Amino acid sequence: MNVCMAQINTLVGDIAGNTQRVLEVSAAQKAAGAHVVVFPELTLTGYPPEDLLLRGDLLDRTEAALAMLCAELPADLTIVVGYPRGRDGALFNSAGVISAGKLLAQYDKQCLPNYEVFDEKRYFDAGTEPCVIDIDGLSVGMTICEDIWHPEPAAQAKAAGAEMLINVNASPFHRGKSSERLEQVKSCAAAHQLPIIYVNQVGGQDELVFDGGSFAIDAQGELSVSAQTFIEAFPIVTVDCSSDPRFVRGDTVAEREDLDAVWQALVLGMRDYVDKNGFPGVVLGLSGGIDSAVTLAVAVDALGHERVEAVMMPFRYTASMSVEDAEAEAKALGVRFSNLSIEPLYEAFMTALADEFSGLPANITEENLQARCRGVLLMSISNKKNLLVLTTGNKSELAVGYSTLYGDMAGGFDVLKDCPKTLVYALARHRNTLGECIPERVITRPPSAELAPGQKDEDSLPPYEILDQIIELYVEQDASHQDMVDAGFSQEDVERVVRLVDLNEYKRRQAPVGVRISRRAFGRDRRYPITWAWRSTS
Fold it and tell me: Which residue in 4, 41, 419, 421 is the catalytic one?
């Protein structure tokens, strides 16, 4: 029996389009020799559908899609597909088996994740029963995503006679997730002596990126077949049903190195956000600094140079090397490049504000005004050309509020939002190994916002090597103030960074969406109040 792992990219809410994609893939894979095609979790609605699940008409459309699949799929092909279904006033995250024009069986997900980015208990009721169905003479048990991380669903299926498990998934990427999945499924297969087919979706959905990486594990816990990550893929695993079910060893793909996996996640996340939202292209401010340089490279890899526009917006404090390096990278990547000075805009604002500012000393206001002049230019270009503005802030800056509302935070997508500054530098080095485009001077010069003469980031912040470690401990690991001091960081640095993180939640609430690559990103993962009395250093 040939089972195709259909690692496809769906669009949330596009039930008609997703259903048509299932039909097209099923026909193509049948022609390629598949007897069974397995699709990911909630394929028909896309994942995660969030509060679309609260709409009654969503279930009506889903039922109509299932009827279409029953009517139009080849009679001699079996598919497994995910969708939400209502039953007796409850809503379930389900997978159905369709063959010979009929919906033969349905399984309801039992283990509903409610941590990190997941909030399935908000929407779904938990299933309680196993589902084991005969497919071409083989007893196959169904499970969905989180089920495979708990022993009970697999044990239930085994007790009900399952000789093999199919596990359908919408499992998002974070660093290290691929190896975690593989080890978990290997452990489950060996514990229950069941071969497991694990199918994961691929694609970007707002801040989430699904990396695919579908695979088949035999009953001894050994990898038999695996798919490449971050692309649609349709590997076929052959199941030998002659005695004990086992997989015929096929092609396997080596796990990506960490920086390459992060780069691919950023590229896929940006591409799908731009394309699925219908933007013809993007525009960004190219400052000559590291963050905008890496953002530009991601944009070109995601969309192609012809869909990317870069704008240099110098001011009196902008170093000549910044202009030169920005122009050099734009030329190397072949993007449209323009140079628009903000000097006249700044002077016009200062003239208009002269009476308001009379008698008051210069302070951060003048620095923020420079950033806001740039934001106005970029948003105007966006409105005129229908281009998505890419912001270029990184996780370190976002954590401590080292950014300007309605200035460098003005835009629609921030691909580096979950990347600490030290990772941004590593990504720049990595991208240059694929084809040099980021000038060496951009990587080696001290980082600066260039909003004041001689300004450097470390004038206002601890060195990024220290800052990023404190942010990871506090934001991603929920470490206490004392935990971080005990880990060797100075009390002064800890108190300073924690205070900045706590005070700047209001800014983060107004920040653009960006790609999640860690276990705890700002956004869906970390939900802190803006108005509060708690202080971590008290």
Answer: 41
d(CA 466, CA 161): 55
Can you list the positions of beta strands (E) in 16-125? 36-38, 78-87, 90-99, 102-108
Alpha helices for 360-490 (secondary structure H): 364-385, 395-400, 421-433, 440-444, 464-471, 481-486
Taking each helix axis from N to C terminus, what angle separates 464-471 and 421-433, rounded to the nearest 10 degrees? 110
Average pLDDT over residues 511-521: 95
Q: How many CB atoms lie within 10 A of CB 520?
A: 17
Read off the tokens for 277. 């939202």
Name which of 502, 402, 525, 521 is nearest 455 in CA terms.
402
**∠ Cα 10 14 15 (to 5°):** 95
Instruction: Identify the band that residue 228 occupies on the pLDDT scale cut at 50, 70 and 90.
Output: very high
Domains and CATH numbers, the chain: 2-251 (3.60.110.10), 260-459+504-508 (3.40.50.620)
H or E stretch covering 495 = helix 491-503
Q: What are φ and ψ of residue 188, in 5° steps?
A: -65, -45
Is the pLDDT at 245 greater than 70, yes or no? no
**What is the rounded distance in angstroms from the CA atom of residue 108 to the CA atom of residue 112?**
10
Give the three-class secondary structure for 402. coil
Mean model confidence pLDDT for the chain: 94
Token representation of residue 250: 């096929």
DSSP 93: E
Q: Residue 85, Cβ neighbours under 10 Å: how many?
A: 18
Estimate the share of the chain in helix, then strand, then coil, as percent rounded to the nearest 5. Answer: 40, 20, 40
Look-up: residue for tokens 């470390």?
A: 458
The C-alpha angle with vertex 485 and arms to 479 and 489, in degrees rounded to 5, equals 105
Residue 227: how many other CB atoms lie within 10 Å: 24
Q: Average of pLDDT values for 181-208?
A: 96
Q: Is the pLDDT of residue 242 over 90?
A: no
The Cβ of residue 255 has, within 10 Å, a number of other Cβ atoms equal to 14
Q: What is the pLDDT of residue 32?
A: 95
Gap between the Cα atoms of 217 and 186, Å rounded = 6
Q: With a cut of 90, say whether residue 129 has pLDDT above it.
A: yes
Instruction: Report whether pLDDT(536) > 80.
Output: no
Cβ–Cβ under 8 Å, residues 270 and 216: no
Whole-model pTM over 0.70: yes
**Mind listing the pLDDT tens digit for each residue in 92-108?**
999 999 999 999 999 99
Cα–Cα separations (whole angstroms), residue 508 to 27, 124, 281, 512 = 46, 29, 25, 8
Q: Which of 4, 111, 131, 145 is catalytic?
A: 145
Whether 524 shows a pLDDT value over 90: the answer reads no
Residue 109 annotated among the catalytic residues of the structure = yes
Q: How far apart are CA 44 and CA 69, in angstroms?
A: 11
Based on its alpha-carbon atoms, the radius of gyration of the chain, rounded to whole angstroms, reads 26
H-helix or E-strand spanning residue 223: strand 223-226
CA distance 527 to 536: 15
Say whether 58 sits in a helix, a strand or coil.
helix
